[in-house]
Structure formats: structure tokens, C-alpha cells
């Protein structure tokens, strides 16, 4: 397992002079307050309410590292719709002496496009990777097959809400795959709302709520608190919700 000083990405800094004066990025509280960030553990989770900026930062990290904005490996190069922000141009990634041998950027919203590109690349003469045929499987099955076949040792994996395609049981499978990779010197940075994934042992959880990016304990995340409250007192919560 990687030590803090061996992580492929040990941090980042934002050069605000490269972001236009009227950019919407300056209106996202947690992003606006960000000058630098440090990664200390092999697994880092970004959490926060919708619109808090966590996926915006994750995407910028991926693009600044060299990944295709819509996802895939570092070898993927295609575009169906440019939706990424200018933040990646302003990021300076802080890397260790260690260099990842592999990596993947996984986005739920553009996975269909990645699956199509994968099918195209696999048919190019000389390609040694057999076609994965993601389009012939359910969304969740495709996700899991990609993870099991494409995630390996010495890798950097950037995932945006992977739980969206996975059942609770499959989320546990993802955690097992993550553990396998981490034991073999991989690093993960993940945006998630899943109280299951957030329970990964030893992970750092960074909250984007309250206008600043800061560490938070698992038991203090909204994902955990709301799920716990709902399970423990479902009838009363539903009664109160619908009466209101």
C-alpha cells in the first residue's frame, strides 16, 4: 500500500489568475475558497450537496492529469460534448516521485460514450485487448466488468458517483476490488453519496459543504446521517415529509 509521500497525486494548487473574472467557478463557494489541497491516503472521497463543486473539481483533476473529459484510460481521445470547466487549466497537480502505470477516469453520465469508444478501439487492427461488449450488458454489469477487468495494480482511478450504476451488493464488490488494487499500490479519488462506499477503511472524506473543503468523519456525513435516520425511523420521517 502506498505511503502518503508515494501517492501518485499528493495534492493540487489553484492558479486563480488563469480563471476569468466572471467565471461561474468563482460562484461555487467551496471552489472559490480553494487555493491548495493535499491527499494523504490511498482513498479520498469528495462528499457534499448537489452543486457544491465536488464533481467539478474531480473532473478538473482528471483532465489536468491527462484523462479524456468524458472518461476512459489515458489512451482515450474522443469528444461528443465539451462540458468540462476551465478549472483544469488553472490546476497544478502535485505529484510524488512515483508514477502510476495505469489509470481510469469513470463518469456515470458519459459511460455510454466511453463504451462506444471502447468498442471502436478494440476493433482497430493490432489491438491486443478483446472487446468488452459493454453495450450488450446492463449498466451495472458493464460498470462492474470494467472495474474488474481494467482496474489493476499501480493505478490512479478517478471515479464520479460509481454507486449510481451499482446495487448495494455490487457496491460491496466495488469495495473489494478497490481493496485489491490498494494493496497493490493504487490510488483512488472518488465523488460519492453512498454511505456504503464512504465506509471504506482508512479513507479520507473531504466535505464540500459549508463553503469550504475540509475533512469530515464518516459518522458526520449527510449520507450516513440521513440514511441512519431513515432506517431507524422510516414511518415517522415519511409521515412528516408527506404531511408537510
State the share of residues found in helices, binned by percent.
Answer: 25-40%
The geometry reads as globular
Helical element count? Answer: 8
Secondary structure tally: strands: 9
Write out the strand line-up for the largest beta sheet, numbering strands in chain order.
Answer: 5-6-7-3-8-9
SS-derived structural category: alpha/beta
Q: Indicate the CATH class.
A: Alpha Beta
Tell me about the largest β-sheet.
Answer: 6 strands, mixed
Describe the protein.
This protein has 244 residues and is an alpha/beta fold. The chain has a single domain, classed as Rossmann fold (3-Layer(aba) Sandwich). Strands 5-6-7-3-8-9 form a 6-stranded mixed β-sheet, with helices on both faces. Strand 6, helix 6 and strand 7 form a beta-alpha-beta unit. The longest helix has 16 residues.
Topology, pairings included?
Blueprint: E1 9-14, H1 29-32, E2 36-38, E3 43-47, H2 54-65, H3 87-90, E4 91-95, E5 102-107, H4 111-122, H5 139-150, E6 155-160, H6 168-183, E7 187-191, E8 204-207, E9 214-215, H7 222-232, H8 234-243
Parallel strand pairs: 3-7, 3-8, 5-6, 6-7
Antiparallel strand pairs: 1-2, 1-4, 8-9
How would you briefly describe this protein structure?
The protein has 244 residues and is an alpha/beta fold. The chain has helices at residues 29-32, 54-65, 87-90, 111-122, 139-150, 168-183, 222-232, 234-243, and strands at 9-14, 36-38, 43-47, 91-95, 102-107, 155-160, 187-191, 204-207, 214-215.
Amino acid at each position: 500500500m502506498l505511503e502518503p509521500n508515494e501517492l501518485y497525486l499528493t495534492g493540487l494548487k489553484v492558479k486563480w489568475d488563469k480563471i476569468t473574472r466572471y467565471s461561474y467557478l468563482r460562484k461555487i463557494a467551496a471552489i472559490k475558497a480553494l487555493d491548495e489541497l493535499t491527499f494523504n491516503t490511498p482513498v479520498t472521497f469528495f462528499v457534499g450537496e448537489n452543486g457544491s463543486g465536488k464533481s467539478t473539481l474531480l473532473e478538473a483533476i482528471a483532465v489536468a492529469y491527462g484523462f479524456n473529459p468524458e472518461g476512459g484510460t489515458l489512451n482515450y481521445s474522443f469528444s461528443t460534448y465539451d462540458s468540462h470547466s476551465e478549472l483544469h487549466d488553472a490546476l497544478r497537480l502535485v505529484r510524488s516521485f512515483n508514477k502510476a502505470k495505469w489509470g481510469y477516469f469513470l463518469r456515470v453520465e458519459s459511460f455510454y460514450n466511453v463504451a462506444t469508444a471502447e468498442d471502436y478501439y478494440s476493433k482497430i487492427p493490432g489491438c491486443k485487448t478483446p472487446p468488452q461488449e459493454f453495450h450488450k450488458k446492463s449498466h451495472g454489469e458493464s460498470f462492474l466488468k470494467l472495474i474488474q477487468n481494467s482496474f489493476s495494480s499501480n493505478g490512479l482511478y478517478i471515479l464520479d458517483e460509481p454507486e449510481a450504476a451499482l446495487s448495494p451488493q455490487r457496491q460491496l464488490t466495488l469495495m473489494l476490488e478497490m481493496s485489491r488494487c490498494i494493496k497493490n499500490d493504487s490510488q483512488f479519488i472518488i465523488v460519492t453519496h453512498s454511505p456504503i462506499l464512504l465506509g471504506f477503511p482508512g479513507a479520507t472524506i473531504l466535505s464540500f459543504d459549508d463553503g469550504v473543503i475540509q475533512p469530515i468523519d464518516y459518522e458526520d456525513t449527510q449520507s450516513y446521517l440521513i440514511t441512519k435516520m431513515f432506517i431507524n425511523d422510516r414511518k415517522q420521517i415519511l409521515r412528516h415529509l408527506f404531511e408537510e
